[in-house]
Amino acid sequence: MPIVTPLTKLLNIRVPVVQGGMQWVGVPKLVAAVSNAGGLGIITALTQPNPSALRTAIKETRAMTSKPFGVNITLLPSINPPDYAGYARAAVEEGVTIFETAGNSPGDLIKYFKSNGCIVIHKCTTIRHAKSAVKLGVDVLSIDGFECAGHPGEEDIGGLVLLARAAKELKIPYLASGGIADARGIVASLALGAAGVNMGTRFMCTVESPIHQNIKEKIVASSEQDTVHIFRTLHNTARVFKNKVSMEVVAIERRGGAKFEDVRDLVSGQRGRMVYETGDPDYGIWSAGIAQGLITDIPTCEDLLRTLEKGVEEVISDLSAVVVKAKL
Ligand code: NAD
């Protein structure tokens, strides 16, 4: 039975699952595979070296799918500040109508997308930020719990409470993001009022994901205990895979008084990218969420979404049986 929610209707997708923005991972091959499988694939704009390359990536994606897909733009501290407005303009001019925004001070970008008639999904980690984004006119919120990979914000609120608060306080549809990799997580999210889910780490571990096979296998072999937070002391907290480099960064931060310059060479995104290219999990920093503890296989996106859909039906039916038994 199809899972119909405000998200599937708004985006015209079959399954309420979004493949969120992931640096170095959200490239046309994966995005098209997710969209073809019935979810929403999202190209990560900053993975492309410049706005012109983003135009090419959009064209490549369109050549591989006729289904809806989006573009992510994340505004966070960067070693080389990107031309955010240039990426946004390129995507709008290429006819993209769905955007995922995330990070700090997204107001101008959101206004630009809305003035061009686009749908905006804004990712945030507090209800306070969610409400500000609603005022800016976003269509959907992506409520990112502390479980997530990448940047969870600085307030450390897990998805269970954050989503229950969202159910009480938000009047527009929202996605559950962070810690979701299986059917139980999707059903729990729907029960918490979400119109769908955002998954990142789960999609890193698919056949069409562009990262090296060794890293996919490393995720499968790892547990929920194999991530760590870096940048806590710099107020730019990021959950990343626990390896030699991330532990070195944490050790430098623990000494006290660390500045970004003290860790810059260790954490650079270009170095992290080599992890995905060479398959050496200890080469640099790479993002992973605690959902990796739930990941045990490397399916195609098509198989993954079919399995999740079937799993959702089974979990709901098991739950109904529990409720009937409880009533007897
Ligand atoms: P980068 O090489 O510019 O920086 C590496 C890491 O250091 C990033 O986490 C960045 O936020 C952090 N950083 C940079 N300057 C900093 C400073 N002055 N103080 C504190 N932290 C600082 O990053 P990159 O890998 O080339 O990525 C480019 C941008 O995309 C970064 O802002 C990054 O955070 C962001 N990003 C996006 C996604 C996404 O899903 N779209 C995922 C992860 C990171």
TrEMBL record:
Cited InterPro entries: Aldolase_TIM, NMO
One Pfam family here: NMO
Gene3D superfamilies, alphabetized: Aldolase class I
Record key words, sorted: Flavoprotein, FMN, Oxidoreductase
GO terms of molecular function: nitronate monooxygenase activity
Top-level lineage group: Eukaryota
Keyword Thylakoid (UniProt): no
Transmembrane segments: none
Protein name in UniProt: Inosine monophosphate dehydrogenase
Organism: Mycena alexandri
